Amino acid sequence: MGMSETASILKAVGNLNKARIIAHLSKHRGETAEDLAKHLGYPLPTVYKYLRELEVAKMVESETKERKVKRYYPRDFKLEISPEKLMELFEQPSALNLYKAKSGDNDAKRLNEVISKAKSGRMTYRQAASTLGISYYEFILLLEEIDAADE
Amino acid sequence: MSRKLVLDSSVIINLDRRGILTKYLNQKRDEGYELLVPRAIAEEILDDPKQYAEEIKETSPELAEKILVSVERMKTAINNDLIKVEQVNYKKYSRILSNTKKHLSKLEAKPEHAVKKGDPELITLVIQLYDKHREKITVASKDKGLLNTLKFFSKKVEYEVLRDV
After folding, report:
1. Which are the contacts of A148, defined by CB distance < 8 A and separation ≥ 6?
2. Alpha-carbon distance values, B131 to A54, B2, B3, B126, B150 (Å)
3. Which residues pair with A71 in a beta bridge?
4. Nearest CA to B8 among B32, B48, B36, B49?
């Protein structure tokens, strides 16, 4: 699990109301926002807000079926916490670590190939950024960090 | 008349991260250069980093903060006219812009609209400035691929690449 994902889960379950929504959905799968508001006693706009955040954190998913009613389901997740994990989480990561956390190890290999092409002039930096699906600025940061590590 | 120096984002970002952007810009101005960037590059050095800082601010607030401070410095350089934003004449140079995009999209195997605007605009600006002033244009970029593409498209243009960055 990437650090940003750990942070999202921690943030979500750190809020007891959101944690309660997940717990409730585990038992009552497919409830609507209105059902949740009624059963848990939270204001409906708050429930919508929490559900949106939980969906972004990939802890809850929804499907819209009959009469365009959106039903919510908990997603499977596991959170392991240790002092080391927390240390990693709060350590200031470099652009390279952030990229790896976001893209995974396979993309890190691809990054090296693309950077090598850009450095040799076989593609422009902007083409390289576009190939990697990142902004030009992020690409320059990655290039600088890789260059510094090589020196 | 001042000599024209067209700056690429790669140089501006790198100089700023090394903490010597303002010093470099002042030095070049004292040497008689007018420092120019096309609009796409101004947007790239101001908007791209802001967006990136926004993306990482939760996981890496210190890096995000540093980036935002850097954006402010680059913005100040533009606001104080140390770097001048020069508009590319899209109408007059539409063919060059289009051909450059085509060329880059072929290399990249991507549709033309997916080509980032900075490369075609920088190349076109060099050609536009030469057409207007008929004097050698200076370009500062750390991007070999961009310089190769510039070479390909500016055969009738006199330009030199600044290597002191």
Report:
1. none
2. 57, 16, 14, 9, 15
3. A63
4. B36
Look up residue A34 and give its two tokens: 């209105």
Q: Is the pLDDT of residue A148 over 80?
A: no
The set of residues, in sequence order, having a beta carbon less than 8 Å from that of B112 and lying 6+ positions away, is: B98, B101, B102, B105
B84-103 mean pLDDT: 94
Contact at CB, A124 and B17, closer than 8 angstroms:
no
Cα–Cα distance, B57 to B153 (Å, whole number): 40
Distance, CA of A113 to CA of A110 (rounded, Å): 5
pLDDT at A147 over 60: yes
Contact across the interface for A136 and B110, Cβ inside 8 Å = no
Tell whether the model's pLDDT for residue B112 goes beyond 80. no
B114-142 pLDDT, tens digit each: 788 999 999 999 999 999 999 999 999 99
In this model, does residue B92 exceed pLDDT 90? yes
pLDDT at A4 over 70: no
CATH number for the domain spanning B31: value is 3.40.50
In angstroms, the CA A121 to CA B151 distance is: 12
Chain A / chain B CB contacts < 8 angstroms: 91
Residue A89: pLDDT band with limits 50, 70, 90 = low
Which chain B residue's Cα is nearest to A122?
B145
Whether A98 and chain B come into contact, CB under 8 Å, resolves to yes
CA gap A77, B85 in Å, rounded: 49
Q: For the packed helices A95-119 and A136-150, what is the interaxial angle rounded to 10 degrees?
A: 80
Predicted confidence (pLDDT) per residue in A9-35, tens digit:
777 778 889 999 999 999 999 999 999
Domain span at B78:
3-161
Number of domains in chain B: 1
